[in-house]
Amino acid sequence: MPIYLTTPYSYIILGLLFCLLLLSRYLFKPTKLKGKYSPKTNLLSPSELEAYKVLKNTLPQGYVVFPQVNLDKIFDINDANRSYTPRNKIDRKSVDFVVFEEQNLKPALAIELDDPSHLRYDRQQRDFFVNQLFIDTQLKLLRINTGDVRNIDLLKQKLNSNLIQGITSL
Fold first, then answer.
1. Is the pLDDT reported for residue 7 higher than 90?
2. Of 142, 126, 166, which Cα lies nearest the Cα of 55?
3. Quick one: which of 31, 89, 134, 164 has the most CB atoms within 10 Å?
4. What's the pLDDT at 111?
5. Tens digits of residue pLDDT in 119-146
6. How far apart are alpha carbons 69 and 21 in whole angstroms?
7. Which residues contact 11 (CB under 8 A, 6 or more apart)?
8. Residue 108 above 80 pLDDT?
């Protein structure tokens, strides 16, 4: 028998190689995603889609509207301590639409559609936080009842005035 197989170190080396083999199988196991995901059929609910089409056609020239914008895309975190608390408060929260200046994509106005779900207590708490965030940052927020989306004249009026003023309701 060769001498390199009979020393105690050879058993340790073989044991380590075996452990590495087991560990590599665990660490580099292929991810099983099949069946866990599928493409959404619609980005927006039917009422949101209707509102998007109306907004897109009634915006004054020089503005564009984007749907489902996360708050962390329109607000910077100004925390000198680099705390995660402020980021976590806006993480995974979004507004239904944001109107941007077309030339530089600067946010000009956010729009929230208030459907009956906004009557729930948890949604009211979220809405209170979002309202306060917009007030504190002086970014405009327009709340629209979903039933009022079809009133194009009123919507045009509110859009035009809110591109000049602050939070209001329709």
1. no
2. 142
3. 134
4. 95
5. 899 999 999 999 999 999 999 999 988 8
6. 45
7. none
8. yes
Q: How far apart are CA 27 and CA 47, in angstroms?
A: 45
Distance, in Å, from the CA atom of 161 to the CA atom of 166, rounded to the nearest integer, reads: 9
Token readout for 24 is 């590599």
Which residues, including other chains, have CB under 8 Å from residue 114's CB and lie 6 or more apart?
Answer: 127, 143, 144, 145, 146, 169
CA dihedral 105, 109, 115, 116 (to 10 degrees): 130
Domains along the sequence of the chain with CATH: 46-169 (3.40.960)
- Residue by residue, what is the 3-state secondary structure of the chain? CCHHHCCHHHHHHHHHHHHHHHHHHHHCCCCCCCCCCCCCCCCCCHHHHHHHHHHHHHCCCCEEEEEEEEHHHCCCCCCCCCCHHHHHHHCCCEEEEEEEECCCCCEEEEEEEECHHHHCHHHHHHHHHHHHHHHHHCCEEEEEEHHHCCCHHHHHHHHHHHCCCCCEEC
